[in-house]
Design goal:
The complex is a heterodimer of chains A (396) and B (159). Chain A is of the alpha/beta class and 396 residues long. Chain A has one domain: 3-Layer(aba) Sandwich (Peroxisomal Thiolase, Chain A, domain 1). In chain A, strand 12 and strand 13 form a beta hairpin. In chain A, helix 6 crosses helix 10. Chain B has 159 residues and is mostly beta strands. Chain B has one domain. Helices cover 5% and strands 35% of the residues of chain B. Chain B has 1 helix and 10 strands, in the order ββαββββββββ. In chain B, strands 1, 6, 7, 8, 9 and 10 form a 6-stranded mixed sheet that branches. In chain B, a hairpin with a 5-residue loop joins strand 3 and strand 4. Chain B starts with 10 loop residues before the first strand and ends with a strand. The model of chain B has no long low-confidence stretch (mean pLDDT 95). The chains are: A alpha/beta (396), B mainly beta (159). At the A-B interface, strand 6, helix 5 and strand 7 of A face strand 2, strand 6 and strand 8 of B. Strand 6 of chain A pairs parallel with strand 2 of chain B, so a sheet runs across the interface.
Chain lengths: 396, 159
């Protein structure tokens, strides 16, 4: 088999997606594990399969809900694949679906679920600093200076983006407003019924300059799941499968360097990922009909869109306007469920699900005739990931 | 360690941030001990490969350029250039609840392969910060707690 045929393209498909109810942080009446079971059962129901068919499990960010426990709860006759994407938090959201796809393509398992569960009330906040009396290792070089939370860790990259490339605050505002706009059509969204206008954005408090409140993702409780099977199995279940055309993960030279010493500092970590991604998917940026771009912070979205070739450093301020970013009329519809900013911070898996729904034609802010959707995960982390999904026509 | 051997670099006994954040402690594996020992003497020490001379930060066991395990330490000039900055307003630690805004700078050391360090920029927390501005280290001693340590802060020289 030639090297360029060693891909998942055309060999696997997403057969089901599902999620629990999405809650504000610490508001879930149920424990995290139960939320995960609900999401997986919802995805199975969406796929029209019996949960006993699930024989593989993939997650990321050290998810606490172990496959063996889930399979035990589901009464699964066997587990054939148990997989964790290592490190880099939400950067693993697309990668987990990639790992599920690889397992199916390789025959390790037949029906693999990628999932994530988060109950920050039960297990503590993402955005809180460490409570220990001492700190050693990498953190000793940042924490004593008040650099603790993810926002404080990544704000200086955004400062540098704005400095080097002249990215405007109004461009970051457009990203936030587009997400909130789309959430107003999405009853699942935590910010459904909570619109955001320019004034609301501009007058919000600083969290850490250059980020205001609405530049940051939410913190939520919930769970989500995506089920992958072979393309043949998928076509038996539905006339319109959604194909992951490619999923790639990675980071550049010394993306894992500590104390902000990455060789390339002003990056969302996609520069090395994207050539492999488009090459394997056999599409280019011009083919992308709708984009789900992981918002840990709005500045990271701007970086990600540039690095995926969807705009340039030079024209980002002109292209990334509210009008261009909204469905169905914009040229580059972005985060059409509300994303991490306004639907739910499901650690990025919600963005993958929204990309899949767009290809199915089931989004609450549907882009007409969407054939190809891109969904990335975890910008600026050491190892980020992106998936491109397409319908039968895109597959060719 | 004898404090009488301290360098004449700028120093302060006045902490920039409120007390109560986790105190930095040398890692148990000994990797970063020369750095922390250096700060107590008011000196800035970083890693430099004994074989190829590449500077490295944060500390690692191997040189990332030539993969030598002979990674030594060298004292470098306690000065640099502001590479980036941020101004936290929202506290994520109880010790900083009443702190108000503070400034964090990422400082590049042009004389040490442009490696970068994180610290606070001393002075008015609402001051304008200029990327590219020259800054000098200010060694901030913490001697009143359970364990003594020194942070490396930065300030824009007067004039």
């Amino acid at each position: 088999m030639a090297t360029d045929e060693l891909t998942i393209r055309g060999r696997v498909a997403v057969v089901g997606v599902g999620e629990s109810v999405y809650y504000k942080r610490a508001q879930s009446p149920e424990p995290e594990f139960k939320l995960v079971l609900r999401a997986i059962l919802a995805a199975c129901a969406d796929a029209g399969i019996d949960p006993s068919r699930v024989d593989g499990f993939c997650s990321y960010s050290n998810d606490r809900n172990l496959p063996a426990r889930i399979a035990n709860a589901l009464g699964s006759p066997e587990i054939r694949f148990s997989n964790m994407q290592w490190g880099s938090g939400g950067g693993g959201a697309a990668a987990a679906i990639g790992n599920a796809s690889a397992a199916v393509a390789a025959g390790f398992a037949q029906c693999v679920v990628a999932f994530r569960g988060l109950a920050q009330g039960q297990f503590g906040r993402f955005g809180a600093g460490p409570r220990s009396n001492t700190i050693s290792g990498q953190g000793a070089f940042t924490v004593p200076y008040g650099v603790m939370s993810p926002a404080q860790t990544y704000a200086m990259r955004t400062t540098r983006l704005m400095y080097e490339h002249g990215i405007d605050g109004s461009t970051m505002r457009a990203v936030a407003m587009a997400a909130y706009h789309h959430a107003q059509s999405n009853p699942r969204a935590v910010m459904y019924g909570r619109p955001l206008d320019e004034k609301g954005y501009d007058e919000a408090r600083w969290i850490v300059e250059p980020f205001r409140l609405y530049d940051l993702c939410l913190e939520n409780d919930g769970a989500a799941a995506v089920i992958v099977m072979s393309a043949e199995a998928a076509r038996d279940l539905t006339p319109n499968p959604v194909y992951p055309l490619a999923v790639q993960q990675g980071g550049g030279h010394r993306s894992g360097a500590s104390v902000h010493n990455q060789t390339d500092y002003v990056t969302s970590s996609f520069k090395t990922v994207v050539p492999h991604l488009y090459g394997q998917a056999k599409v280019g940026p011009e083919d992308i009909d709708v984009v789900q771009s992981y918002e840990n912070f709005t500045g990271a979205v701007v970086m990600s869109l540039i690095e995926h070739g969807l705009c340039t450093y030079e024209n980002a301020n002109e292209v990334l306007t509210f009008e261009n970013l909204i469905s169905p009329t914009g040229k580059l519809p972005l985060n059409t469920s509300g994303g991490n900013l306004a639907e739910c911070y499901m650690h990025g898996l919600g963005l993958q699900i929204e990309a899949i729904r767009q290809i199915r034609g089931e989004s609450t802010s549907q882009v007409p005739n969407a054939r190809v959707a891109l969904a990335n995960a975890g910008p600026m982390v050491e190892v980020a990931s992106t998936a491109i999904y397409g319908n039968q026509e895109a597959l060719g | 360690m004898s404090e009488s051997k301290r360098s004449d670099a700028k120093s302060t006994q006045e902490a920039y941030l409120h007390a109560g954040l986790p105190a930095p402690t040398p890692a148990r594996d000994g990797l970063d001990k020369p750095y922390w020992d250096g700060t107590r003497r008011h000196e800035l020490w970083v890693q430099r490969c004994d074989d190829c001379g590449t500077h490295q930060w944060g500390p690692e066991w191997m040189c990332h350029r030539c993969r030598s395990f002979e990674v030594g330490w060298v004292q470098v000039a306690a000065e640099g250039v502001i590479y980036s900055w941020e101004r936290p307003h929202h506290s994520v630690h109880p010790a900083l609840a009443g702190q108000g805004p503070y400034l964090v700078v990422l400082v590049e050391l042009p004389h040490a392969d442009r490696l970068r360090m994180v610290g606070n920029l001393l002075g008015d927390p609402m001051q304008d910060v200029e990327i590219g501005a020259r800054v000098q280290a200010v060694f901030e001693d913490h001697d009143d707690g359970e364990r003594s340590f020194t942070l490396v802060q930065w300030s824009v020289p007067a004039g």
